[in-house]
Write a structure and sequence with these properties.
- The protein is an alpha/beta fold.
- It has a single domain, classed as Rossmann fold (3-Layer(aba) Sandwich).
- It is 47% helix and 15% strand.
- The chain contains 10 helices and 8 strands.
- Strands 1, 2, 3, 4, 5, 6, 7 and 8 form an 8-stranded mixed beta sheet that branches.
- Strand 3 and strand 4 form a beta hairpin.
- It is globular, with a radius of gyration of 18 Å.
């Protein structure tokens, strides 16, 4: 029987389209939540591209703060020093309005914030109530800057944007999510794949049980289970939910 770690090594690959930007259009505010590696970033970015919406993966903010804290030796318990890092972190939009490039203290750290060290530490930092409170205003301001937006995270529909026109929760089993993460890292070692699965399960526990803004499914969320779905199927399901909300609200 194939081990869980061995199964993780079967890669799941996706590619984004190469259509040129047609400009951001008016649309609704979308809260896209789900656990780590559930596909929020890739699915949300592709749905935003097709709908000509802006896109923001709010997890990048927490990853950027975590990376900067690790670089400077700041622990999660050093609250004043941790919160002081927030103004040094920026998400930079591309021509399509996707906030995908990460700057920390003026340096481009887009690649670094997705590294294994940040993966292991980000939950310990992101559960700090003072840090989460410091980032609420930043996230809400980004959502209100005009045009349709898909904002991805773990507490968008429950805390950050509780009045979003549509709330979507992407879910997948830990094993499927670990395969995606392993493919992203181009992991070919079974022990490393097993470590990824263990880290995801640990992060799920931390995110779901933290006292402040735990990972939850909003009561009015559209739940999309992605196990067994191809990338295009999941994107299509997200777009259907958003278009239904556009029809219900007149695109406001």
């Amino acid at each position: 029987m194939e081990s869980a770690a061995g199964a993780i090594l079967r890669s799941v690959t996706t590619t984004e389209g190469t259509e040129q930007s047609m400009g951001i259009r008016h649309g609704v505010v979308v809260a896209l939540d789900g656990p780590s590696s559930s596909g929020k970033s890739t699915v949300g970015a592709e749905a935003a591209r097709r709908l000509r919406y802006r896109f923001c993966d709010t997890g990048l903010l927490y990853r950027a703060v975590t990376w900067l804290a690790l670089e400077r030796g700041i622990s999660p318990s050093d609250l004043a020093a941790l919160v002081a890092l927030v103004p040094e972190v920026q998400l930079i939009a591309d021509a399509r309005g996707r906030l995908r490039r990460v700057e920390a203290s003026g340096a481009d750290v887009t690649a670094e914030v997705r590294g294994a060290a940040v993966d292991r530490a980000v939950s310990d930092y992101s559960k700090v109530p003072e840090l989460r409170a410091a980032l609420i205003g930043r996230q809400r301001a980004m959502a209100g800057e005009g045009g349709g937006i898909i904002m991805a995270g773990r507490d968008i529909g429950t805390v950050i944007l509780p009045d979003a026109a549509v709330k979507i929760y992407l879910n997948a089993s830990p094993e499927v999510r670990a395969r995606r993460r392993a493919a992203q890292r181009r992991t070919t070692d079974e022990a490393q794949a097993g470590q990824i699965l263990a880290e995801l399960r640990a992060r799920d526990s931390i995110d779901s049980n933290r006292e402040t803004a735990p990972l939850r499914t909003a009561s009015d969320a559209v739940i999309i289970h992605t196990d067994g779905n191809g990338f295009k199927e999941t994107v299509a399901a997200v777009i259907r939910a958003i278009r239904a909300a556009e029809e219900d609200t007149g695109g406001r």
